[in-house]
# Entry
Amino acid sequence: MSTQWVIAETAALAAELIGGLRDLEDGVLTAFVGVDATEAKTLIALGADRVVALAPGNSTPWEDYVFPLVDRARTEAPDLVLVGATRRGRGLAAFLAASLDAPLVSDAKALSRREGRIQADRMVLGGLAVKTVSTDAATVIATVAAGVYAARAADLRRSGPIETLEPVAGRVRVTGRRLKDGGDVNLAGAKRVVGVGRGFADKADLALAEALATALGAELACSRPIAEFFKWMPEERYIGISGQAIKPDLYIAVGISGQAQHVYGIRDAKVIVSINKDETAPIGQKADYSIVGDLKEVLPVLTGAL
Amino acid sequence: MKRVIVCYKWVPDGADIRIDERTRTLAMDGVSWTLNDFDRNAIEAGVQIKAATGCDLIGVTAGVDTEASGKDALSRGLDSLYYLSDQAMADADSRTTSEVLAGMIGRLGGADLVICSEASDDEYAQQTGPRLAALLGYSSVTCVSALSPSGESLSASRKLEEGVEDVEIAGPAVVSVVPDINQPPFPSVKQILGAKKKPSQAVALAEVVGDMDRIRPQLRTDSLLAPEVSRKRVSLSAGGVGAADAVAGLLKALAAEGVL
Ligand SMILES: Cc1cc2nc3c(=O)[nH]c(=O)nc-3n(C[C@H](O)[C@H](O)[C@H](O)COP(=O)(O)OP(=O)(O)OC[C@H]3O[C@@H](n4cnc5c(N)ncnc54)[C@H](O)[C@@H]3O)c2cc1C
# Structure
């Protein structure tokens, strides 16, 4: 019987990876995840055969679980390991891969197994291209982001063991954790999103985008420079390869040129609209509908018409 | 801190890559090469540690035609450069790269601290730092947004989804830094001229890798194509219509799409 693993920080992400793995292949599926007993039972109902609960102490980095995981992988020899592509998850996956001398597909999509090889797609060159890679290694690791797979329906008749695992201390000690203060941004679940870019010459002009977002019932998002360089919006609101990937029904890009790194994050939007004064801007080729014009003129008209 | 190593990557400039719309293939000829964007932050992080501790700051890179990278990298404040340039790196995956870099660092006698950036512009695999740490037997700390040496140890802040995690690292480590750790300044004319005089040493693959099997890529590239564009690409301003008409056209289209 083959063995598969899911490793994730949260139960929600683990549930998606379990759903994805269950569609991919049969085997004994162990989920290593930060959960309490109730959540662990739910993951079993959702398709895991065994849940190993991870609960690192206050001074332990989550990544310290990699040491016992390496030992366990040597005896259990999982053929496929999906790791939730969170920031900690990505680091743990790479350390695990090098320790086991296994290939790791980062941010894998469209995972499949054919003729004994695991194949997957991933975006490269800042979103300019999709690279399809494959491997016949005995253990294959992949990181998978939230939203790639869906959780299965719960089957409450399923049962399975719930264990715990102790991290093995390394030489890194956590001395403090400072949680971000609220301002909960829910771009991932938003149906409509208005994205603002460097076409906004003045911070005060953002009011035009806010008015549009309010009229549409949309969330506000932005390109990287607006968050990282101008700091006009929190970083959780920037879209793209190094920011958020979203899948709204409607994305309106205002004053955004449409560089590959940005478009990476809106590829799964149902409809993309661009408002840009330059008719040759790349976004025109990447949008369903474009209005060529000055945002200061177009936005009030659009908001007024809604 | 006696010796700090910064790993950087020499990458194709994405802005130069042309796409054939019909075949979705990429034209890489005539593409210029450049220092990986995020690695400027990694080098600057090293420069700041050097300012605080007086350490030796060495740049390490492995790739194809990497000697061309020396001028730019050294002008940013590295003391010296140790580089490997080999056609075998053309289809390197993260395993290949980290094995080669680990071999190079081993040949230099190791380091107190190795600084990488989070990702490269071309592959964006986010693997090199933690893989290097595993191969060298060092600690791995990713997503580092602040770094300060304190005596024998090192304190760092990590930028994670839910907030910031402060850590203390004892012993040698590989850190991966995020771009907001610093704002790398443009090199001055003096630095650019000075770069030419800095020591730069090439090393051959056979000198750093004992078993060539270990640098064989484990991931085979089956295809590399521009993503399929399935967008409608309708311009509502075609024919020079004004904002009011364009907006009316847009609202009609969005209503028909069922997204309003
Ligand atoms: C490694 C790496 C990772 C990156 N990751 C990301 C990422 O995750 N997300 C991201 O967004 N970017 C990312 N970038 C940056 C990206 O390459 C672009 O630089 C960025 O997306 C451009 O932002 P922009 O479209 O707002 O600005 P610009 O490219 O400057 O475009 C501004 C646009 O506004 C238009 N405009 C100007 N004035 C007006 C007006 N009055 N009315 C209407 N239109 C107007 C202009 O015609 C232009 O098209 C990354 C870059 C690198 C190297």
User: Anything to note?
Assistant: Chain B has a mean pLDDT of 96. Residues 187 and 220 of chain B are 38 Å apart (CA to CA).
